[in-house]
Design a protein that fits this description.
heterodimer; A: 266 residues; alpha/beta; 11 helices; B: 220 residues; mainly alpha
Chain lengths: 266, 220
Amino acid sequence: LHFAPQTDFNVRMAGFGVKIMVLVATVLLAGRPALADVTVAVAANFATTAQKLETVFTAKTDQQVVIVTGSTGQLYAQIRNGAPYDLFLSADAARIARLETDGALRPAGRKPYALGRLVLFGNDPKLIALGLRQALQSAALRHLAVANPALAPYGAAARQVLDNLALGPELDAKLVMGANVGQAFGFVRSGNAELGLVARGQVSGNDGRWIEVPRDLYSPVRQEAGLLRDTPVSRAFFAFLDSDAARDVIRAAGYDVPACKAEPAE
Amino acid sequence: VIWASVWLSLKLAGLSTLILLVLATPLAWWLATTRARLRPVVEAITALPLVLPPTVLGFYLLILMSPEMPLGALWARLSDSTLSFSFAGLLVASVIYSLPFAVQPLQGAFQQVARGTTEAAATLGAGRWDVFLSIVMPLSRRGFLIAAVMSFAHTVGEFGVVLMVGGNIPGKTRVISIEIFNAVETLDYATAHRLSAGLLVFSFLVLTIVYLLNRQGRVQ
């Protein structure tokens, strides 16, 4: 009997605590993000270009686009594990082909949207002015940044360039690898590596600090798009990638566009 | 191939632990004994790697280690390589990254050595070094052991910082966690499983040892 009021108080306090927690949880969960009309997973190298495409698409159709970025490998793994994406703009063709064999693509839901080119990028214009072969053999070169060839298509393209130039094991010893081409670019940009083989799409606004890698040294990076869910808006965005407006944006960002359109123009 | 990264991780963790014990001992002793107003600030700085995301640490280290910055330039002049993308650079990063795991157990151990004991020794004519070496150190044995084990384990588990400043060079900066990342990204789940399971067992054993040591301490 003596303890009864005390216990009652404890129970009431516990009840009060639970109420507070429910209140906090309600507040936190209430702020849900606005519903997207279409969610697009985009390989990191194409992220800024995809944002420009989004602006054009939204202006045209008034549909909201949410862009999710990551490395192609990460995004592929997320999609295979049920990530709620409608479209996937991959940095390569291999992952899209794999999704196709996995049965994750919708019918006629695969096409190239951009062809990536490789450039030699560096902080010192004098080094760049030497030209590709001489710059790579320069004594001033301590580190050459590339994307990891096993992980990133631009890394694989860089590997082709190095194999075709056949500059020997001295150059291989200077290689440093980023997890993706964005990180490889960052290694050079931050001054830690003198040169890098990176994507043309990354170096805009750095005049005099990059040169094109001759196209006979590698096959261009064929970036493909995959349609994961069939909704009117995702179909519209998928078709939009082939439109003249989209192709202009993609070209302006430093990519080539596929020679022929996959679908007839509107 | 994976053994190269296992060996590299063990070497990195071992050397980091040695350096940390040397650096953390005077720092922890100062923190445990000082009454300086500055103490909370130094404690906070020491604990920063616990709460900062590795990306912040990695980002600043990448900037600092660049040959265009004073520290990076100095290193590049002293050695013939850059600090980033080198084993030495990873060592610097690991020491910073694991600092709280060395300092905090030591500080705790030093604080438990009763002030009376050290004062008694001092009145009996023992010098400060003598007090530290023959009284504080032996009494803090467990603290040293926990600091060493935790620093080692935490460095083995390092990922984000290494990813950002390491450059993924086999035998130089490609540690276990990076190898796992590569394996997962290339869908080589067999390698990823082997290394991950190894790390899981290793970490479990380390933590069990630490808690065993802790319990023994309390029983004493």
